[in-house]
Amino acid sequence: DNQSTSKTKKSEEAFVQNNECSIVDGSIMEGGGQIIRTSIALAALLKKNMRIVKIRANRASPGLRSQHLNGIILVKIMFGATLEGGEIDSETIYFHNIRGFHPTLRDFKANTKSAGSLALLLQIALPCA
C-alpha cells in the first residue's frame, strides 16, 4: 500500500553512502536513540566510518543525551576509534578511524548515570563484544 511504500522510501533515504563514510539521518522513523546505537555498533563491527546527522532532531530536546554519548564512547574505546562531535546536545557525530576490537584491553567501563540506561548501554556494546 501507499503508506508502507512511503515508510520504505524514508528508510532508504535515511542511509547514504559515499567514499568517505556512511551517513545516517538520525531523525528518520521514530528518530530516537536506537538508530544511533545500531549505526555505531555496525560501524565498529564493519570498520566503516559513520556520520550521523540530525540526531533526535524531532524530539523536544534534540541531540545526544548522556546515555547515548556514554555508549558511543564505550564502543570508541573498545575499537580504538575517533569520535568527533561527541558532546551532550550534539546533533552530528563522526565516528571514524576504527582500528578494530582492542587486542589486549578486556575490561571496559562506562557510567550509565541511571539504572534505566543500562539496557541501552548493552544494546550498543554487547554486539561489539
Question: Secondary-structure element sequence?
Answer: HEEHEHEEH
Number of helical stretches of at least 4 residues: 4
Shape: globular
Radius of gyration: 15 Å
Order of strands, widest sheet: 1-2-3-5-4
**Whole-number mean pLDDT:** 84
**Number of E-state strands:** 5
Which structural class is indicated by helix and strand composition? Answer: alpha+beta
Main sheet overview: 5 strands, mixed
Beta-strand level of the residues, as a percent range? 5-15%
- Summarize the amount of helix as a percent range: 25-40%
Q: Report how far the terminal alpha carbons are from each other.
A: 40 Å
**Weakly predicted, low-confidence segments:** 4-12
Overview of the structural elements:
- The chain has 129 residues and is an alpha+beta fold.
- Helix content is 37%, strand content 14%.
- It has helices spanning 2-13, 34-46, 66-79, 117-125, and strands spanning 15-17, 22-25, 50-53, 82-84, 93-96.
- A five-stranded mixed sheet has the order 1-2-3-5-4.
- Helix 2 packs parallel to helix 4 (117-125).
- The relative contact order is 0.17.
- Mean pLDDT is 84; it is low at 4-12.
Q: Which helices and strands occur, and which strands form pairs?
A:
Elements: H1 2-13, E1 15-17, E2 22-25, H2 34-46, E3 50-53, H3 66-79, E4 82-84, E5 93-96, H4 117-125
Parallel strand pairs: 2-3
Antiparallel strand pairs: 1-2, 3-5, 4-5
Helix pairs in contact: 2-3, 2-4, 3-4
Sum this structure up briefly.
It is built from 4 helices and 5 strands.
Keywords:
alpha+beta, 129 residues, 4 helices, 5 strands
